[in-house]
Every structure is written in structure tokens, then in C-alpha cells.
Amino acid sequence: MTVTRPRRSRLAGVVKVGGSLFDLDDWPTRLLAWLSDTARKTLSPPIESAAGIIPRAFAERTESSLPWQGSPSDSALDGGAVQRWLLLAGGGPWIDTLRLWDARQALGDEACHTWCTQLLTITAGVACQRLLSAARASSGIAVYPQVVSRAGLGAFHRWRTASGSEAADAAAAVVLAVMDAGAYLEHATRCGRQRLPRDWTVSSDSLAVCLARRMRAGTLVLAKSCSLSSPAMTLAAAVQAGLIDQHFPQAAADRPVMQWLDLRADCPVAVPFPNSATEA
Asked: Computed from CA positions of residues 197, 202, 207, 210, in that sequence, does the dihedral angle turn out positive or negative?
């Protein structure tokens, strides 16, 4: 009798998608392509260039094809470990508007913090819907069919596919779920597990660091609308440039493994952030 061993499941990483990307119509497809190709690198050698390691699916594109076409056969994904990712969606222009109102009308830190967490719950729902739609046209990727809270993480880790078919999940190298960041923050605060400042020095970037640490994720990827101005950019310089929030260096004081991903680039390449050789 042949015993089929279940495929290993682990949290490969947390990816934080900046709200500034929400006006990019194909950001879900771009992100799923990057995640899929990241998984393929464990089985199929990536292509190296002067710009860094380029996902094979992007490097092999033709002028008439989409950037994520022309990738290796999905049969190459069979037999490997499932990479499970959590996605945290930022607040983008909605929170920027609230910040502007607070500056003009002095709404107060506590009230704004509460509204920001509520907005993050809304953007999580939007992101989940967009990703589910994009996943229907993507192979090798499975997206959890609902936003998850801290209490729902166990169900996500046990989940196979939306239809409940384990056979369908056997072809998925990446399983992705969208986290309700607002609900997670409120739950962690009530339980005393999270002590982030309740003011404008904190954004969803710092929350993503805390989530990645709490979940013991392999890496944190900050998916943004721009590239770093310098490969040697430090956390302090990134704060000064407005790329991350003021609390981020403190939240990341234990130097977790982090990457920066310019998702608007023609060929998205994740780079170390900050560069360990320059961040002292």
C-alpha cells in the first residue's frame, strides 16, 4: 500500500501591498506572477542580470505577450513544498485623506487611529476580491476565498482550495491569504501583544513588521509604487524620504529579513531592504 505524504506547509512570508498601488489595474496579476516565480526559483534556476535576480517569467516575455507569460511548465511545481503567504493591504489614498482632515480639523490621534484600523479592514476586503479574480487566470496560485483574522489563521493553514479539492491544490505552489490588518491590530492590542503608538508615526508598514515577526514569517516584502533611490538606502533615509513611517526603524530593530519590491516596474525585482552591508 502506497502512503502519500501531505505536502509541507509553512508561512513563507508576509507581503505588504502599499495602498498607492490600488490605482494600478493589474497589481494583483503582477503580484501573483512575482509570488509564483519566487516559488519556482526553488526548482528552476532564476535568471541573473546586472539589476539582480529577475523572475524567469518576466525575463522570458516577448513583445506580444504579457510579462508573466512564457514561464516554465506548471508541472515543474509538482512535488515541492507549498509556500503560504499572508498579504496585508495598506490604506493608500483613503488614509491620506483622513490624515489631511486631521491636520485641518484636529480630529485627534485616538479617533484617527480607530478610523484607520477600520479602513484597513475595508482595503483588505477590496484586495481579497481583486486577488481572487486575478487568481482565476493564474496557474500555480491559490487564493484563500475570504479575508482572515487572527482567529482564522488555523483554518487558512488547513485550507486546501476553495472547492475543498486536495487534488486541485496539488498544482498550487503558492497559497495566499489576505489578513484583516485592522482586526488583527485591535485583537493584538487588547491581548497586550502589540504596543504600537496610536498616532500618525505608525502606518501599516510597521504593522506588517509586527505581523511578520508574530507569525515567524520567512521574510517581509514591502510591495511599493517606487524603487529605492539607492541600493545602500538606510532605514533612516527611507523615513526621511517618506517611504516608510517614523516608527518603522524601531519596529524592525531586530533586523528581520525584509525585501523591497517596486511592483510598478516593468520587471519587478525584490531587493534587500535595508542593505545589511550599509545598515549599521
From this structure: negative
